[in-house]
Amino acid sequence: MKPLPKNFYLRSPDTVAKELLGKILVRKVRNHILSGKIVETEAYFGEGDPASRAANGKKKFNLAMWEDVGKAFIYMVHNNWLFNVVAHEKGKVGAVLIRAIEPLEGIEVMKKNRGIDNLRSLTNGPGKLTKALGITKEFNGIDLTNSKSEIFIVKGKEEEFEICKSHRIGVSRDLNVRLRFFINGNQFVSYKKVF
DNA sequence: AGGAAGATCTACT
DNA sequence: GTAGATCTTCCTA
């Protein structure tokens, strides 16, 4: 499987967020592979988006959002690492938060990483999936378009699904636009409720 | 030093 | 399904 090319991410964050649904997030560890289908995402812009980490200008920790698209942008909130993909049009700023995946390969390892046995709550949240896949700040800036990386994203198999939109979750000051996208009816979407 | 943050877990109604 | 306590960085004063 070849990773999605860089120009996939060279578009508006909301477009990329929508199109990332159904793609496969792959995490390579020494002798095994963990992977899952992306079922829920959120788009974040740069300036003008009060919920974005980039809203207050460049900082040390959010530099990745200004840099090359197709890279990982990882930061911590409430003791959880959140995994984003840098995506924006040329010269702009933005990222897509991966909020939930459906486990495919390496489920036993994910259960061990999470310390639980329940499949449904294994990766149905942004902080949960990073824990299940063993993702930490160390991977900030990693290239997701290179299959040699420890984390990358490939095209999944073709399938039909309905895309739903809602407002972003947990954001104290959201924009008046729906920027959360998820696969309708999927068991691993973090909240069914539509805000 | 203090507070806020894109969340999670647990314990209930 | 919803409410409340609580976890750790990084930013701002």
Can you tell me about this structure?
The chain has 195 residues and is an alpha+beta fold. It has one domain: Methylpurine-DNA glycosylase (MPG) (3-methyladenine DNA Glycosylase, Chain A), CATH 3.10.300.10. 12% of the residues lie in helices and 29% in strands. It is built from 3 helices and 8 strands; from the N terminus they run αβββββααβββ. Strands 1, 2, 3, 4, 5, 6, 7 and 8 form an 8-stranded antiparallel β-sheet that branches. Strand 3 (72-77) and strand 4 (80-86) form a beta hairpin. It is globular and about 40 Å long. The chain binds a DNA duplex (13 and 13 nucleotides) through residues 42, 44, 51-53, 56, 59-61, 75-80, 82, 84, 97, 99, 125-128, 137, 168-172, 174, 190, 193.
Features:
alpha+beta; DNA-binding; single chain; 3-methyladenine DNA Glycosylase, Chain A
**How many angstroms does the end-to-end distance come to?**
36 Å
| Unreliable stretches | none
Structural class: alpha+beta
What's the Cα radius of gyration? 15 Å
Brief rundown of the structure:
This protein is α+β, with helices and mostly antiparallel strands. The protein contains three helices and eight strands.
Summarize the helices and strands and which ones pair or pack.
Elements: H1 13-20, E1 24-29, E2 32-45, E3 72-77, E4 80-86, E5 94-105, H2 107-114, H3 126-133, E6 151-154, E7 163-166, E8 180-183
Antiparallel strand pairs: 1-2, 1-6, 2-5, 2-8, 3-4, 4-5, 7-8
The structure holds a DNA duplex (13 and 13 nucleotides).
